[in-house]
Amino acid sequence: MEPMQSTKKIGSKIAEARKKATISQAQLAGHLFISSQAVGKWERGESMPDIITLNRLAEILGVDLNYFSENFQSPAPEIIHGEPLVKQPAESGSYRIPSEKHPESKREEKLSWDMSRGNWVDADFSGLKNLHEKFSSSNMQRCKFIGSDLSGLLLKGNHVDSCDFSRSDISSSHIQRTLLNKNIFKDCLLKKAEFSRSQLNICDFSGANFTGTKFSESYLYGCDLTGVDFTGMVVKSGGFTGVVVKTGDLEKNTIVDAVWNRASFIDSQIADLVFTGTLDECYFENCAFTRVTFRNATLINTFFKNNKNLKRIRFIDCQADRMTFEFLKQGKADVKGITLVTPKGGNE
Fold this sequence. Notes:
CATH topology of the largest domain: Pectate Lyase C-like
Radius of gyration: 24 Å
CATH superfamily of the largest domain: E3 ubiquitin-protein ligase SopA
Structural class: alpha/beta
Number of helices: 5
CATH class of the largest domain: Mainly Beta
Largest sheet: 13 strands, parallel
Helix content: 10-25%
CATH architecture of the largest domain: 3 Solenoid
Strand content: 15-25%
C-alpha cells in the first residue's frame, strides 16, 4: 500500500500546485506534450511521472522540486508568476531598470519584460523588444509579434499556435521542447537559432533566413519554405517533411527558390518533399528518404553516405557534377534523370 499512498500524495500535490497556478489539466498537458488524460491519472494517483517530468512540472508550476517529496510537510509554496507585462510607475508610463554602476545615471536603460508562464490569446505585441530569455512555459494563441526583436530568445516548453512573427528578428534564439503550430514567420531572421526537441507544424517560413540554424531532434512538417536561405543549416536526428499528397501531386511540397549552400542532414527522416534549385556542398548522411523528388535541381559537391532508400528518390531533369553522381550511383539511386555537368557548367 505504501507505494500507492506515495503516488496519491504526489498526485494531490500536482493538482494543488496546478490549481494555484490557474492552469487547466489540458494546458499543463500541452506544456508537456502529453494527453490531458495522463495528467488526470497523475492527480488521481493512478500513475506517477518520472523524475525528468517532475523537474519539468516544478518549472512550469513554479515550485521547488522538493515540493513533490513525500516528506515535504509544509503547505504548497506560493506560486511565483512572471512579472506583469507592463510596469507603469505613476508618472513615467514605463519601467526603467537603474544602472548598478551608475544608479543616478540619466541615460536610457533597456526595458526587460518577463512573459514566462503566461497564457496569451489574441494579443498584439508587434514591435516588442528586449524580451531575451523571459518567455518560457507559456501558451500563445493568435498573437502578433510583427517586426519584433526577439533575438537571443529562450522558448522552453512553449505551445505557440496561429501567431504571426512576420519580419521579426529571432536570431541566436534557443527553442527547446516547444510546439510551433500554424504560425507565420515570413521574412524572419532565424540566423544561428537552435531548435531542440521541438515540433514545427504547418508554419509559413517563406523568405526566412535560416543561415547557420541547427535542428536537433526536431521535426518540421508541412511548412512553407519558399525562398528560404538554408546556408549552413544542420538537421540532426529529426524530420524534414511535407504533407502527404495524392500520387503525382508534387506542387504542395515543392521548395521553390531556396538556397541550400552547405546544408546538412544527419540521421534524419526526409519525406514528401520536392527539392529544386542548386544544392551546393550539401551533406546527407544516415538519412531515410520517403517520396522525395529532385526536380530541375543542380547538385554540386553534394555528399550522400549510408542513406536508406536512395533508389526511391526521383530525379527529374536534374544535373550533377561527377563526384555527386558517383555518390548517388554507389548508393543505388536511380540516376537516369540526371545529366552530368562539369564544375563550370558545361555538359560532359
